[in-house]
Design a protein that fits this description.
Elements lengths: L1 E2 L21 H9 L3 E4 L7 E6 L2 E6 L16 E3 L5 H7 L27 E5 L5 H5 L7 H4 L4 H7 L2 E6 L2 E11 L3 E8 L8 H11 L4 H6 L9 E4 L7 E6 L2
Parallel strand pairs: 4-5
Antiparallel strand pairs: 1-2, 2-3, 3-4, 6-7, 7-8, 8-9, 9-11, 10-11
């Protein structure tokens, strides 16, 4: 496959309908934020299209259009694809582990927020929190990978953190953002798990209005719609999707 140039990408949005919750939000997120990479078997009238953002990828189209080595750009990531792609994936990679992802759609807003430990506050992330996000270390870097790094996530207005003084103990954010859903991810530092800190961050994310700039970009506040959740990457507490229609 060939990597596509930015001006070639918008025409491919029809390959990834925006209405479905879950992994399908990846394509719209990558298009809006510019953080993804796009490939196709050919630039004009492609038969197979792939988009990767951080450690996740969507693969759509006709697997018969692919040749050996075409899928190597998707190595070491979670690939959302139809079963018909399994033979070509197995040919390309030494190890392929099928994973059925479950998506839970939230139908009502959270009824209450959990009680926080003494000295811990839950706040919306701002650009000043970027160093604290980076300070979570490489094992937690996946949480901001779909935004292109901690600086971009901190400035997005779509992340909330549980903090003790200036240290982040837990964080929840829109992992993939589309015009109809938010795929929400969260994590907690190991020594503060089972304190409901990630839940408090998710509750804040799902029950507060977006910054004005974010609302103008498309999605409405998460409290206006149903939501969903699914297992997140290794080391995460869980991830979810919030519908904003």
């Amino acid at each position: 496959m060939i990597q596509l140039l930015p001006h070639q990408i918008p025409a491919l949005s029809r390959w990834f309908p925006a209405a479905a919750p879950g992994p399908a939000a990846l394509a719209e997120h990558a298009l809006a934020t510019g953080t993804g990479q796009w490939w196709a078997d050919r630039a004009v009238h492609p038969r197979t299209v792939a988009v990767r953002c951080a450690d996740h990828a969507l693969l759509r189209g006709d697997p018969d259009a692919l040749t050996a080595g075409d899928l190597t750009p998707l190595a070491d990531c979670w690939i959302d694809a139809h079963d018909r792609f399994l033979p070509v994936l197995a040919t390309t990679f030494d190890r392929v582990t099928p994973w059925e992802r479950m998506v839970y759609v939230q139908r009502t807003p959270p009824s209450s927020a959990p009680r926080l430990p003494w000295g811990v506050t839950v706040r919306r992330l701002t650009p000043e929190h970027a160093p604290a996000l980076a300070g979570l270390g490489t094992d937690a870097a996946w949480i901001h990978g779909t935004w292109g790094g901690p600086t971009a996530l901190a400035a997005s207005g779509l992340g909330w953190a549980a903090l003790h003084k200036d240290r982040i103990l837990a964080v929840a954010c829109a992992y993939f953002l589309s015009s109809t859903h938010e795929d929400i991810a969260c994590l907690t530092v190991p020594e503060h798990r089972r304190e409901h800190l990630a839940l408090a961050c998710v509750t804040a994310l799902c029950t507060t209005s977006r910054p004005a700039a974010t609302r103008r970009a498309g999605p409405a506040p998460a409290t206006t719609a149903p939501a969903a959740c699914s297992p997140g990457p290794p080391g995460s507490d869980w991830s979810a999707s919030t519908c904003t229609t």
